Request: fold
Amino acid sequence: AQTVTQSQPEMSVQEAETVTLSCTYDTSENNYYLFWYKQPPSRQMILVIRQEAYKQQNATENRFSVNFQKAAKSFSLKISDSQLGDTAMYFCAFMLLTRSNYQLIWGAGTKLIIKP
Amino acid sequence: EAQVTQNPRYLITVTGKKLTVTCSQNMNHEYMSWYRQDPGLGLRQIYYSMNVEVTDKGDVPEGYKVSRKEKRNFPLILESPSPNQTSLYFCASSMNWGAPGYTFGSGTRLTVV
Reply:
C-alpha cells in the first residue's frame, strides 16, 4: 500500500523568506503523480504544483518549486519570497496511475504560518 | 464557471438521523469521489465512481452510501450518522485516464451530536 509522510506538523517563517516543506512517500510502483495542495482558512483545496514521476525535471510554478528525488522517494516543496497569503495547510498527495481508481493518498499536512 | 458544488456547507445533526450531502459538477467529468478530512490524518477516500452507475468503496466506506444515477451528481448518504462521522467532507471530480488532477468542492463541515 502507498503511504505519504509529512514530518513537519507546523512551520513558521518571516515574510519574504524561503521555506521548504518535506514529503516522503512509499510505493513500489513506477508510474504515478505527486501533488502539493494548499488549504487556506477558507478550507478550499487549491492545487499548487504537480509532478509526473516519469519526468526528471522538477516542476515549478512561479514562486513554488519542488525537489523530486525519485530514488529517495522524496518530494519537497520550496516556497520562495513567502507572502502572508501563503499561510495555509499544505498537503502532499500521491496518485497511482491505474484504470480502476484515481485515488489520492494524502499526507497529514503541514501548517505553514507566514509572519509579517 | 467550471466547478464542483457541494451542499450544505455546514450541517449539525443528531445521531441516527439520515442525511444527504449533495455534490454536482458541471465539467462532464467521468470520475467523482468523496473524501473525509480529519486532523492529523489528511484526507481519506470514502467512495468513488468511475462513471454513471459505477461506484466502489474507498478506504473508509463504513457508514456511508453513494449513488451515481447521473453523470453530474454524486450524493453522499449517511443512513444513521454517528459522532465518529463528524468531519470535513470533500467531493471531487476529474476527467478519466490521462488527465489526473481533481477539482474540489468547497467542503461540508458535518457535526453529529
About this structure: Chain A touches chain B through 22 residues (CB under 8 Å). The mean pLDDT of chain A is 93. The CA atoms of residues 16 and 46 of chain A lie 21 Å apart.
